[in-house]
Write a structure and sequence with these properties.
The chain has 585 residues and is an alpha+beta fold. It has a three-stranded antiparallel β-sheet.
Length: 585
């Protein structure tokens, strides 16, 4: 027996600081105001713990705030009221038996009688995303497939919930009772539901605030929208119990938020063993689980890419190639602030001239926070964590885990604030600076008779610029938290950013210029194409055009230097009258 409400298995740090310690789910939920952040072994475990357990427990026990005013009252309280604590405690007492990780008949998040026709099981490493298994074990690794991986009950609980959210796709073991088993296997399995999107998770100062930040206010949930532990325990229609209690699975859409959060994407069974050091999980069985045809539009933890759904009035309508809203996925190596155009986009796509246009929409949670930023306070230290997985070989292996935490000023979520416009401009300036450095490198390579670096091969110098600008952008975002919507302070922050960005960009550009041979200054004339005039490329022209582009992008820093308003010694800043015109190229 290992009861999640009463056994210490969640690693939490105190809100006031101090070392982390293990606590039970009851302690975590009832005293959420006293705890800071969840401690996890892998960043992808945090959204799994919140979605599969903590959030549905709170919403199923208390309901969700019915309006923005009610949500604000809950948030400003800073902790559960005595009545709310009693409801949560009674809920955990009533359903205590459903949270037993090793119950002989109804283990939490598992199928008690899950088995194969031949009684096979696999090592516990199958559910550990960081453990190589099967053919993926390196030849000279420190452990082999034959070595036993022992998981404590706490570790097993974490990886169990993680598997339901992030498991790889492709072939799964065929279980007895699965009607689609062929030759002992089930094919066509998609990844876990979170593996198909970039998870956008708002995080507050305490666990209590984090829970509320991840609960969208709105009307009461449907009566048949239940978490998986209540769905499997109820005596209802067959289709309601199939999705959790047996090896049989189905393809369906979630009934609502609780069903979505506790989605059973796999049929799993943990096999515990008594060892001298205590109870350990060494063998597991993972089979096919429920499948979603697509990510539902009420998914609160993702940004959306909006596809154009129509044309001008009266025009022939084209059949859409896919859903009009698709989750935005994270890209390996790309910082979260480079996606601010999606993170801060309004919920609905812009419509111009009666035509539906493509674009982005932020997550439902951030969109609702944008309407309440003045009530919460512009100085609130909101942190947005973005998490995703990159899969390889037909999504059957994990290639990479992406995680980034972004300090986000609440005022930036309001579409009509100067902070919103400022952070979008800063992100765009950083991209333009990277492109300017790439163009400089391309012109320098042409000046020595080489071809530019292909955009999809090698490392382009613009990536070095973005890497150098990364701490500056994060520093600016943190500083903008306390300015509210004061346009003068925002402008001062942008000026300081531009002056520092100028220096960082010039440092990268100067290394490129210093590296070219003397022959690059003699230049080369290159025919651009048939019927087009030749263009001259030389190092001096490339450098001067880069300086002009730098002044165009970072216009505040250039204007302050020209006016003498700021004591600035920006390197490489030329007199605009000395810059070449288009006729020089």
């Amino acid at each position: 027996m290992f009861l999640l409400p009463d056994s210490p298995w969640l690693r939490l740090s105190p809100a006031e600081g101090g070392p982390t310690r293990d606590c039970s789910m009851r302690e975590a939920v009832l005293d959420a105001h006293a705890w800071g952040d969840l401690g996890v072994d892998l960043p992808t475990q945090k959204p799994a713990l919140l979605r599969q357990l903590l959030l549905p427990v709170v919403v199923d026990a208390l309901g969700r705030p019915g309006s923005d005013r009610e949500w604000i009252r809950w948030f400003e309280a800073g902790r559960w009221s005595a009545e709310q604590r009693d409801c949560l405690s009674s809920y955990l007492d009533e359903h205590r038996g459903l949270f037993d990780l090793f119950h002989p008949e109804q283990p939490f998040g598992q199928v008690g009688d899950l088995r194969t026709a031949k009684g096979e099981t696999k090592g516990a490493g199958l559910i550990v995303a960081t453990a190589a298994t099967g053919n993926n074990v390196p030849l000279f690794a420190s452990r082999s497939e034959g070595d036993v991986l022992e998981l404590t009950p706490a570790q097993a609980a974490h990886w169990l919930l993680h598997t339901h959210c992030w498991d790889t796709a492709a072939i799964k073991t065929g279980a007895v009772g699965d009607p689609r088993v062929t030759a002992g296997k089930t094919t066509g399995n998609p990844t876990g539901p979170l593996g198909q999107l970039g998870v956008t998770l708002p995080v507050g100062k305490t666990l209590y605030e984090t829970l509320l930040l991840n609960i969208p206010y709105g009307p009461p949930l449907r009566s048949d929208d239940l978490p998986q532990w209540r769905r499997r325990a109820q005596q209802g229609p067959v289709e309601d119990t199939l999705s959790a209690a047996t090896a049989a699975w189905q393809e369906r859409t979630p009934k609502g938020l609780l069903d979505l959060w506790t989605w059973q994407a796999r049929r799993i069974r943990l096999f515990p063993e008594h060892r001298p050091e205590g109870l350990r999980v060494t063998r597991v069985l993972v089979a096919a689980g429920d499948r979603m045809p697509h990510t539902p539009e009420f998914e609160p933890h993702t940004m959306w890419r909006l596809e154009a759904t129509g044309g001008r009035p009266g025009a022939k309508q084209k059949k859409p190639a896919g859903p009009p809203r698709r989750p935005v996925r994270m890209q390996p190596g790309k910082a979260a602030w480079r996606g601010l155009d999606a993170l801060l986009a309004p919920e609905r796509a812009t419509r111009e001239a009666g035509e539906d246009t493509a674009g982005f929409a932020t997550s439902e949670l951030l969109d609702k926070m944008g309407a309440l930023w003045e009530d919460v306070g512009g100085g609130y230290p909101l942190r947005v964590e973005l998490t995703g997985m990159a899969y390889g070989t037909q999504s059957s292996i994990v290639d990479d885990v992406m995680h980034d935490a972004l300090p986000l000023p609440l005022a930036a979520l309001g579409t009509d604030t100067c902070v919103h416009a400022a952070v979008l401009e800063v992100a765009e300036q950083a991209e333009q600076l990277a492109m300017a450095v790439n163009n400089l490198a391309a012109d320098l390579r042409r000046a020595v008779g080489a071809d530019p670096i292909p955009w999809d091969k090698g490392q382009r110098p613009g990536e070095l610029v973005l890497h150098a600008l990364d701490p500056l952008v994060r520093r600016l975002l943190t500083g903008l938290r306390g300015v509210g919507d004061d346009i003068e302070r925002v402008e001062a922050g942008q000026l300081a950013w531009e002056q520092l960005a100028w220096r960082r960009s010039w440092e990268v550009a100067d290394r490129l210029v210093q590296a070219v041979p003397v022959s690059a200054y003699a230049g080369r004339r290159i025919q651009q194409g048939e019927g087009k005039p030749e263009r001259t490329y030389r190092a001096s022209l490339a450098e001067r055009f880069f300086r002009r582009r730098l002044a165009e992008i970072l216009h505040r820093a250039a204007a302050a230097h020209a006016a003498g308003d700021q004591p600035s010694d920006l390197p490489g800043l030329a007199d605009p009258d000395d810059l070449p015109g288009d006729d020089h190229v």
